[in-house]
Amino acid sequence: MGGIFGTISKKSCVADLFYGTDYNSHLGTRRGGLATYSSEKGFVRSIHNLESSYFRTKFESTLNKFEGATSGIGVISDTDAQPLIMNSHLGRFAICTVAKIVNKDELTQLLLEKNMHFAEMSSGSTNPTELVALLIIQAKTFREGIENVFHHIKGSCTMMILTEDGIICARDSWGRTPIIIGKKEGAYAASSETTSFPNLDYETAYEVGPGEIVKIKADGMEQIRPANKKMQVCSFLWVYYGFPTSTYEGKNVEEARFTNGFNLAKTDDVEVDCCSGIPDSGTGMAMGYAAGKGVPYQRCIAKYTPTWPRSFTPSNQSMRSLVAKMKLIPNKAMLKGKRVLFCDDSIVRGTQLRDNVKVLFDQAGLKECHMRIACPPLVYGCPFINFTSSKSDMELITRRIIEKFEGDANKNLEKYATTGSPEYQRMVDEIASQLGLTSLKFNTIEQLVEAIGLPKCQVCTHCFDGSSAYTLDEFADED
Fold it and tell me: Which family does the similarity line name (predicted)?
């Protein structure tokens, strides 16, 4: 996915920029970048590969190159190298994005036909952030340029633009990914995660709306473009991506996860000895489930955090499996001979969970393994954000099972996505069988949306029900 952070201050911003960007590290592990501006040095940029190290480790020793900067932007990216520094008729600026552009090749060809050129290449293809920058400079103003991006791309794009006199923040036109504004005396900041704010003494001041464009300076904020009326914020911010202390649209991540588990427990008649979460995103749900069910919450699996990243991020399946195996350590003393109910955020491919369940039975002596999932089955691939490194819907365990049953992975998807239908139940039973589970239940869309606390029409649930396909071709303008 990726996360972005920006800050502008009446004094040095370097420490805030460094730590604020680092607080977005859970959103990606591939590349990190910082860009700053000062009247003495102008624009300064640094980008590092994070696949074998951490953001802090890579950047801490080189922070002196940014000395004197009073404004800057940073990014944790799972795709392209960024921020980029551009020089155009709009002036010099640095830009970073959280984006997935489904029609990237089509737009690349369109710009090439206009005699534009691309200097940045990501893994041999067009750098999405450079594509966004080139779409912006087609226009006469930053507002018109950002609107040009919104009108042309299919997918999503949230961005920050560092100029000589401020930071322009533009949220995706459907609001799928967030930008939140924070402030303290003499400084403003913007971030994908409110988690960046407390330890840097920022207070949450404003949530940028869908398609809204604002500009922050050290002494205030101005609106450049009003927010759109329609919103489709990604439900996976609460299910998986978000850090527990973060809040989006006024709804806290951990509170939503706890409520999700609590409500699910009230409708579940399984008998178990205890409840445990699959770290980290399953923990809050498990605590809620234990409270709702009236059973003990126990840490039957612990995550070894010092060296292992989130396992969805490596692009290589064997590396994902290795990370997933090495980072989770079962506690045999808490598992042997017990009936344990585990809570997890989702099931994507199923490979990690299958291997973990086998270990729990074969090595830890587990008696029964019951699994409860925070969201409905993932039946549709996500065209809006880089949810995983999946390249095909066939990487989803649901699609492989549908193909097994129907002979066509795209047949009767609506029936398989409908909770309680015969097709749905058959699919869930097959998933449980393939993963070696004693029982398996998924949350419903209705319960998930209730736990998040927003109207269904404002929450994107496309990966569960395919309901947001129309937004690829429809522009959510403010009218």
Answer: In the C-terminal section; belongs to the purine/pyrimidine phosphoribosyltransferase family.
Please state the φ and ψ torsions of residue 75, each to the nearest 5 degrees. Answer: -145, 140
Say how far apart CA 232 and CA 205 lie, in whole Å.
22
- Nearest alpha carbon to residue 260 among 365, 345, 191, 380: 345
CA distance 436 to 179: 41
> Do the beta carbons of residue 342 and residue 278 sit within 8 Å?
yes
Nearest one of 368, 377, 350, 356 to 442, comparing CA atoms: 377
114 to 32, 85, 130, 138, 337: CA distances (angstroms): 31, 21, 15, 10, 68
Q: What distances in angstroms separate CA 77 from CA 50, 171, 210, one per listed residue?
A: 9, 17, 21
| 157 annotated to a ligand binding site | no
Give residue-wise pLDDT tens across range 141-173.
999 999 999 999 999 999 999 999 999 999 999
pTM: 0.93
Distance CA 431, CA 429 (A): 5
Residue 382 annotated as part of some ligand binding site:
yes
| Whole-number Å distance between alpha carbons of 165 and 138 | 21
Is 52 marked within a binding site? Answer: no
Is 105 flagged in the annotation as binding?
no
| 22 known ligand binder | no
Confirm or deny that 393 is annotated as ligand binding. no
pLDDT single digits (tens) 225-247? 999 999 999 999 999 999 999 99
Distance (Å, rounded) from C-alpha 101 to C-alpha 472?
A: 10
* Residues belonging to the chain: 479
Residue 51: count of CB within 10 angstroms of its CB: 13
